[in-house]
């Protein structure tokens, strides 16, 4: 019997019976058929085609192409479904029952108050009429594009409406699936309400490819609204990228639609179809005039935001004023009535047409601001052309400062009497619903003056008797004319800050202060100038920012943020931080700067007498040296001058680096040796014991190196320049953070302080204590010079990127480079509602 063989084939009977077929490969009957005596048949299998490693090229290309087409079709279908779903969800959100007609009226009023000047293109009478018709007929007349504008309005205004904030808090806390993923919020966050609508608007605009492939006036408006909102929210670690991109996309879309060429001579308007065709063919003159005015205002909104966001380092403008071939916006009453008027053009000053408006003047000032911010961010006075022998002073007609200042003066002289700043004029414009444009006009004018005139005021004028121009290079000849110029320039600085304070007082009486980023930046500038004047009162010769006329403080030591003009600005910033995240950054920065000014004055007096003994070193003002503190100013220039973070850390330009290196060589501090430092400390100790009479007042922070009121002022720039007594400045920081009880205790305990006598110095314990004090002082001195070595090279390209905080929402300084060594200013934003919106849209 032959052994069974396993074969890959089976006979018909075994295959049918599903039993194992043991055969010799089909050559003979299988064992099973043999045993049963049945006939054995084998079905010949079909031939197997030979295997190929790769199919023919044509076949492979056809097969792969077909697969790709299926994938592309599937992705396209998904994109269309998502876009349709987002559009439907946006419609559902706008149909919420709490968005009543009265609610929309209030929302539009908030929009007009806070964002009317920057985004002036909404014709509120038409929008109110359409919404009213919708509520009366229960039928929506708004298309997909119009919904984008409504969502933009809600994005900007929801945070300012308490009822909307409550409604939106309830919605966010009850989103499907939210109970497991997000805790219930017990404290209402106004910013969360606007964030909710911002996420919906971003969804409704569609994916990037869809959003960038459809151009319309409504989409330009929506992008501008979304960009303006993002600008005020200061997203951490983004460098203001979101606002920068939204505004940039809006500008490009507006240019594509030809919104900047509507009034060009001989322009073929058929090329720039913006409104719906049935509106253009209706022939209604008033409606056509209204559509043209809306186009102009949208383009000028692009222009305003372009100038505001292009303030920081490496930021350039997109729109050139000479390219705008459209007339300036008309007055608000003419806009509401849809009247066609002639207003003049931006680049043709002196030609104002038959109708003039505050908004048109504001746009002209924005153009000037663009040049001033560029001058400041690129280095300010340090960029003025110089040669080896002659440095251009600011009063020279060839200086950039002089030219910009003259432009501002010309702007002021051209203002009609009803547009100038006064309380009566404010109420006149308020009566015609144009107070916001009036406020922004004068806020921005004051900011322009501050940004110009702060260039020639020393940052740390601790040795100055009053305004005397820059103390660091480039400096100029001192004579009667220059002295009067410096005094006048400093007064312009403080007077402009006081103008902002006066505007705040007027607006807050009726709670009508616009909560815009421009107003926020103006208030921050006024607050800082006030803080500067508080610490260096000799610079504010006319006391514009030192106190209100009707203010009295018996103790004389009230905190800087608790009274006076600076206190009002600080309080206003704190209120604005409820709605604008950028305001929180300014509040933190002011508090840090207050501590910084106190600290640097303490350091100055602490090391002043020690440094008197070393004539080999060139000293910073922090060490008791001469100069106006330019090296200290460079550490703060980005944050102090910034409208709202550039992306990452900016490196200095080559020209700035060369200048910085030269300054570092000439102002390098030579560290004293340990032996020299010990000798200096011992001499300072004995000097302190000799100069302090028994029972004299000594500050609680007094150290052996602290000079008394009678100490001479070393290192004067000229022997004839005598500064105010040191005790005057000591009082400023001595009482700054102490309570009246602490001050009383200081005065009670001060006379009991012991001074070394010849007999006590012979005591071994006394000698050991003095040695310990010298070691401690040496350690402090070492730390001071280490900090100095770290701070000296931190130049940031000499006054470049100084408007980063305003334009990007982040400080130019990294946390490690901040002089006060604290955390970043940017407040953390809450979690985005986007994930919850996605969940809700699926239901």
UniProtKB/TrEMBL annotation:
<keyword id="KW-0805">Transcription regulation</keyword>
<dbReference type="GO" id="GO:0008270">
    <property type="term" value="F:zinc ion binding"/>
</dbReference>
<dbReference type="Pfam" id="PF00172">
    <property type="entry name" value="Zn_clus"/>
</dbReference>
<feature type="region of interest" description="Disordered">
    <location>
        <begin position="735"/>
        <end position="761"/>
    </location>
</feature>
<feature type="compositionally biased region" description="Low complexity">
    <location>
        <begin position="736"/>
        <end position="753"/>
    </location>
</feature>
<dbReference type="InterPro" id="IPR050815">
    <property type="entry name" value="TF_fung"/>
</dbReference>
<dbReference type="GO" id="GO:0005634">
    <property type="term" value="C:nucleus"/>
</dbReference>
<dbReference type="InterPro" id="IPR007219">
    <property type="entry name" value="XnlR_reg_dom"/>
</dbReference>
<feature type="domain" description="Zn(2)-C6 fungal-type">
    <location>
        <begin position="10"/>
        <end position="42"/>
    </location>
</feature>
<feature type="compositionally biased region" description="Basic and acidic residues">
    <location>
        <begin position="651"/>
        <end position="678"/>
    </location>
</feature>
<dbReference type="GO" id="GO:0003677">
    <property type="term" value="F:DNA binding"/>
</dbReference>
<feature type="region of interest" description="Disordered">
    <location>
        <begin position="640"/>
        <end position="721"/>
    </location>
</feature>
<keyword id="KW-0804">Transcription</keyword>
<protein>
    <submittedName>
        <fullName>Uu.00g018540.m01.CDS01</fullName>
    </submittedName>
</protein>
<keyword id="KW-0479">Metal-binding</keyword>
<feature type="region of interest" description="Disordered">
    <location>
        <begin position="45"/>
        <end position="71"/>
    </location>
</feature>
<dbReference type="InterPro" id="IPR001138">
    <property type="entry name" value="Zn2Cys6_DnaBD"/>
</dbReference>
<feature type="compositionally biased region" description="Basic and acidic residues">
    <location>
        <begin position="49"/>
        <end position="71"/>
    </location>
</feature>
<dbReference type="GO" id="GO:0006351">
    <property type="term" value="P:DNA-templated transcription"/>
</dbReference>
<dbReference type="Pfam" id="PF04082">
    <property type="entry name" value="Fungal_trans"/>
</dbReference>
<keyword id="KW-0539">Nucleus</keyword>
<dbReference type="InterPro" id="IPR036864">
    <property type="entry name" value="Zn2-C6_fun-type_DNA-bd_sf"/>
</dbReference>
<dbReference type="GO" id="GO:0000981">
    <property type="term" value="F:DNA-binding transcription factor activity, RNA polymerase II-specific"/>
</dbReference>
<feature type="compositionally biased region" description="Low complexity">
    <location>
        <begin position="682"/>
        <end position="696"/>
    </location>
</feature>
């Amino acid at each position: 019997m032959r052994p069974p063989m396993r074969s890959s084939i089976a006979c018909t009977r075994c295959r049918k019976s599903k039993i194992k077929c043991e055969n010799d490969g089909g050559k003979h009957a299988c064992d099973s058929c043999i045993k049963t005596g049945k006939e054995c048949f084998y079905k010949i299998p079909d031939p197997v085609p030979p295997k190929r490693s790769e199919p023919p090229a044509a076949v492979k290309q056809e097969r792969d192409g077909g697969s790709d087409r299926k994938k592309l079709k599937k992705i396209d279908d998904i994109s269309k479904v998502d876009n349709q779903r987002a559009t439907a969800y946006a419609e559902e959100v706008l149909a919420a029952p709490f968005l009543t007609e009265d609610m929309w009226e209030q929302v539009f009023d908030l929009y007009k108050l806070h964002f009317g000047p920057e985004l002036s293109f909404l014709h509120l009478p038409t929008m109110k009429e359409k919404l009213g018709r919708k509520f009366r007929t229960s039928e929506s007349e708004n298309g997909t594009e119009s919904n984008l504008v409504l969502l933009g309005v809600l994005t900007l205004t929801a945070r300012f409406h308490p009822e909307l904030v409550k409604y939106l808090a309830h919605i966010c806390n009850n989103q499907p699936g939210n109970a497991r993923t997000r805790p219930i919020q017990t404290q209402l966050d106004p910013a969360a309400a606007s964030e909710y609508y911002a996420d919906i608007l971003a969804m409704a605009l569609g994916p990037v490819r869809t959003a960038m492939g459809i151009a319309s006036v409504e989409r330009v408006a929506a992008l501008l609204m979304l960009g303006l909102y993002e600008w005020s929210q200061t997203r951490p670690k983004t460098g203001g990228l979101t606002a920068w991109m939204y505004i940039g996309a809006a500008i490009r879309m507006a240019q594509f639609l030809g919104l900047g060429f509507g009034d060009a001579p001989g322009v073929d308007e058929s090329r720039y179809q913006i409104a719906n065709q049935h509106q253009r063919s209706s022939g209604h003159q008033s409606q056509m005039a209204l559509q043209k005015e809306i186009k102009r205002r949208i383009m000028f909104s692009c222009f305003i935001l372009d100038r505001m966001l292009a303030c920081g380092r490496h930021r350039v403008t997109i729109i050139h004023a000479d390219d705008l071939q459209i007339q300036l916006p008309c007055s608000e009453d003419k806009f509401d009535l849809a009247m066609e008027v002639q207003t003049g053009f931006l680049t043709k000053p002196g030609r104002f047409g038959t109708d003039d408006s505050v908004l048109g003047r504001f746009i002209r000032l924005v153009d000037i601001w663009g040049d001033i911010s560029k001058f400041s961010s690129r280095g300010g006075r340090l960029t003025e052309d110089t040669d080896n022998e002659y440095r251009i002073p600011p009063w020279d007609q060839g200086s950039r400062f002089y030219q910009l200042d003259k432009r501002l003066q010309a702007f002021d002289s051209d203002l009609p009497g009803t547009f100038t700043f006064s309380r009566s004029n404010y109420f006149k414009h308020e009566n015609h619903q144009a107070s916001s444009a009036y406020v922004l006009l004068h806020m921005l004018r004051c900011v322009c003056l501050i940004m110009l005139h702060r260039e020639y005021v020393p940052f740390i004028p601790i040795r100055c008797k009053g305004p005397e121009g820059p103390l660091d290079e480039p400096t100029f000849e001192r004579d009667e004319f220059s002295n009067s110029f410096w005094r006048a320039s400093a007064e312009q600085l403080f007077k402009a800050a006081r103008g902002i304070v006066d505007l705040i007082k007027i607006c807050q009486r009726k709670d009508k202060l616009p909560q815009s980023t421009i107003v926020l930046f103006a208030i921050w500038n006024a607050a800082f100038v006030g803080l500067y004047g508080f610490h260096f009162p000799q610079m504010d010769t006319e006391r514009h920012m030192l106190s209100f006329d009707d203010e009295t403080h018996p103790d004389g030591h009230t905190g800087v943020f608790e009274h006076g003009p600076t206190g009002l600005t600080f309080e206003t910033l704190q209120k604005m931080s409820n709605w604008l995240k950028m305001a929180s950054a300014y509040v933190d920065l002011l508090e840090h700067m207050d501590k910084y000014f106190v600290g640097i004055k303490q350091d100055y007096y602490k090391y002043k007498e020690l440094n008197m003994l070393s004539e080999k070193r060139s000293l910073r003002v922090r060490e008791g040296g001469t100069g106006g503190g330019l090296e200290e100013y460079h550490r703060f220039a980005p944050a102090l001058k910034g409208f709202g973070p550039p992306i990452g850390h900016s490196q200095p330009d080559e020209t700035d680096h060369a200048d910085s290196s030269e300054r570092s060589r000439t102002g390098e501090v030579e560290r004293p040796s340990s032996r020299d430092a010990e000798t200096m400390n011992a001499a300072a100790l004995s000097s302190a014991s000799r100069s302090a009479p028994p029972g004299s007042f000594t500050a609680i922070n007094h150290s052996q190196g602290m000079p008394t009121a009678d100490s001479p002022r070393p290192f004067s720039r000229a022997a004839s320049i005598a500064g105010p007594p040191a005790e005057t400045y000591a009082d400023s920081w001595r009482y700054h953070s102490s309570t009246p009880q602490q001050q009383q205790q200081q005065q009670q305990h001060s006379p009991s302080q012991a001074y070394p006598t010849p007999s006590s110095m012979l005591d071994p314990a006394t000698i050991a204590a003095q040695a310990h004090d010298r070691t401690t002082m040496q350690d402090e001195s070492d730390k001071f010079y280490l900090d100095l070595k770290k701070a000296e090279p931190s130049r940031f390209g000499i006054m470049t990127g100084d408007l980063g905080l305003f334009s990007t929402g982040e400080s130019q300084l990294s946390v490690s480079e901040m002089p006060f060594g604290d955390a970043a200013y940017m407040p953390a934003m809450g979690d985005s509602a986007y994930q919850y919106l996605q969940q809700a849209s699926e239901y």
